[in-house]
Design a protein that fits this description.
159 residues, mainly alpha, Ferritin, two-stranded antiparallel ribbon, 3% strand
Length: 159
C-alpha cells in the first residue's frame, strides 16, 4: 500500500487531530480552575471537529479523486512521530508530569508550528465543500494560536 496515498495521509491527519483532542481533554480534567477546565474542553471539542472535517475531506477525495491534485507532500513518518509525541504529552498531563503553565506553552508551540496550518496545501481542489472545510480548520488553528498566546500572557505562564 502506498503510504503517501491521500486517504492514508488524511487518516493520519485525522488521528493527529484526535490526539490533540485527547491532550486537551486531559488538560481539562487536570485543571483546578473552572475557567481552565472549560477552556481546554472547548479546545478539545474543536480538535474533534477538525477530525470530523478531515474525515469528510477523505470521503470527498475517495468519491472524486479526479477533483484533486497533490500539492505539498506530508511525510507519514513525521505525522506518526507527532502522534507519538502528543500521546506522550497527554500521558504526562494525566500523570501530573506536565503542569498547567507548561502545557499552555507546549500547546501554543504545537498550534503555531502545526502542519494543520498547511493542510490546505496538501490537496489542491476547487471543490466548494473541501475549501470550506479546509478554511474552517485553518481559521480555527489561527484562533487557537492566538487564544493560547493570550492565555499565556493572562496567566503569566510564558516559557
Amino acid at each position: 500500500m502506498d503510504t503517501e496515498a491521500p486517504p492514508v495521509v488524511l487518516a493520519l491527519m485525522m488521528a493527529l487531530e484526535l490526539r490533540f483532542a485527547e491532550l486537551y481533554m486531559a488538560a481539562s480534567r487536570s485543571s483546578e480552575s473552572v475557567d481552565m477546565k472549560e477552556f481546554w474542553a472547548r479546545m478539545s471539542r474543536q480538535e474533534e471537529s477538525h477530525a470530523g472535517y478531515i474525515d469528510r475531506i477523505r470521503k470527498i477525495y475517495i468519491n472524486a479523486p479526479e477533483k484533486f491534485k497533490i500539492g505539498s507532500r506530508f511525510n507519514p513518518v513525521i505525522l506518526k512521530s507527532w502522534l507519538s509525541e502528543i500521546g506522550s504529552a497527554a500521558s504526562k498531563v494525566k500523570s501530573g508530569e506536565i503542569g498547567p503553565a507548561e502545557l499552555l506553552s507546549i500547546a501554543s508551540e504545537y498550534e503555531n508550528t502545526l502542519m494543520e496550518k498547511n493542510y490546505g496545501e496538501y490537496l489542491i481542489s476547487d471543490d466548494a465543500e473541501y475549501l470550506a472545510l479546509i478554511g474552517k480548520i485553518t481559521s480555527d488553528t489561527a484562533v487557537h494560536g492566538k487564544i493560547l498566546r493570550d492565555k499565556i500572557t493572562e496567566t503569566g505562564s510564558g516559557a
